[in-house]
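In response to reviewer comment 3 from the previous cycle, which asked for concrete evidence that the modeling workflow produces usable outputs, we include below a single protein chain processed end to end. The sequence was submitted unchanged, and the resulting structure tokens are shown without manual editing.
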Amino acid sequence: MSDRSTEQAALERANLDARIAFVAASFLLAYAFAALLDRVGAPERFVGAAPPYFTILGLATLGFLLHSMRASVYYTAGRGLPAAYAGFANAAIVIALMLPFGARLAGGGWAVGAVAGVFIGLAAAGLYVGPLLRKTGVFSISELLCARFTSAATRVGFIGAVALSSTLLAAAGGLIAVNALVELTGANRGFAAFLIAATSLIIAGPGGLSGVMWAAAAAAGVATLGFGWPIAALSLHDALPNGLIFGGAASTEAAKLLESWGVTPAPMGLPVEFAATLAMALGIATLAPVLAASVATGDGRSARRAGVAALFWTVVIALLAAAAIAASALSLARATAGQPPERLPQAIYQASERGLVSVCGYYVRGPSEAQRACAAKGYAPGAPLAAAEIRPIDGDVLLGALPQTAELGAASSGLIASALVAIGLALAAAGLQACATAFGHDALYRLRGEIDLTSRRLAVNRVTLVIVSTLAYVTAVTGVFTPGALVAAALAVSAACLAPSLVLAFWPRAGDREALVALCGGAVGLFSALAAAGSPNRIEIYALCALAGVALGGALGLLSGLTSRSDKPAARAFITRMLRGDAQMLQPDKGA
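The workflow returned the following structure tokens.
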């Protein structure tokens, strides 16, 4: 029996590897065909737009083909996702979370601050929290907290916090993908928003977590290729500046350029940076979409290996993105250095017309408008502009501008657009699926005493998916929020509302009252701080507000626990089983 099981597992892995090889070959052939079209002189706009649209079609097809009506597949990908692929998929989701403040990757802010917080939080999620979820057999972090603190009020609070943060991330991921299509391919915003919303729904709807994880793994591959190919091309042509990362000469020059353009904000001081590090780490460590990859693995050990893989691939892709942003900044500065406003490269005027690059503080449509704009700032006709007068609006624009400023061709532009669209879709689909799990499983199934039909649960899931994807579509069309604000808000909600209760879950004196007090205190502290801050425009402000919620919620929960009776046998037994048990401590899912 053991030999037969081993042989069957090896056969299944071989079949899986064959299917993955087929998908990878399909993507590579499509991108190679785009490069061939670029070489033979096909229209640049077509060559640059074809790869991202193929990427959308490929990810949607992958999600649709993985459809399932089994709860175990829909909510946990059948607990059969190999650790290497689970970590690769999670890397795409985390990179998408970092994109809104990705310019900091090239600005040298890895040691402390938002970027450092992401890596610390990912390490905590991948090496401890995620394996803990897998060990206990739950489907999500909210289900674990609901099992530890069983009152209806705490359940509703935990489910609401997970649903809110996941909805914000779904909207942020969709907006990242829409902005990439609009800015890099010239697509109509309404059409792009509908296409991205429909694609994320197709990825997450039919197959649930299985579709999301495999689509995210494909997105990670596209991101690695999209960010890595321009760097490799520059290196092959001996055009890659030396010391582009880790504090080299080129890295320092790029960081100064990014700061002078306002793409990377000025530091707010070491205490604030430490606060941002802590808040980001807490938010990432308790974020449902980041923990989903661990839930899909075979056991706790596989979940920990997936965490190591996620950390490795996140660092690799982040380094590629940082190098691409830095190279783009240097190429842009050199292409415009010493040029008068009426003799800038045509790509600058085109980008400025779309609102992506400002010239002397204005968005211009051509040389004459640029000359008038710079004359208003005191530049005489024909006078060379300072580098600070040509300002990209954010790091994503610099990523997309690298192929043009470095003259790498339209196919490279299409690859970078594909990378941005793919990881945006991965985040959007992961947010959709986490929100649907919170309502369809954690609320409908567990709150109803585990008696609900699987078909009804999946129907509720899909209705939730439609509602959330509609909200994401409206957000993308109206442009009311930025991806950075949505990501920062999601992390703040996760840190303030879930982190204190997760810590209390390991304390034997904490019961339902303590969890409810911590949850409410975290929410009140967070939203009160946000109201006092007015309109936060930096992730550090959201981090400080989140820490206010964490401090208030944690303090109130601690005080409540100290004043309660210390003898809670049920809590002590739960903690013992959670830490030292043999997994599957909850009753098995009847629909699995």
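Strands lie at 357-359, 390-392. We consider this sufficient to address the reviewer's concern, and the full set will be provided in the supplementary archive.
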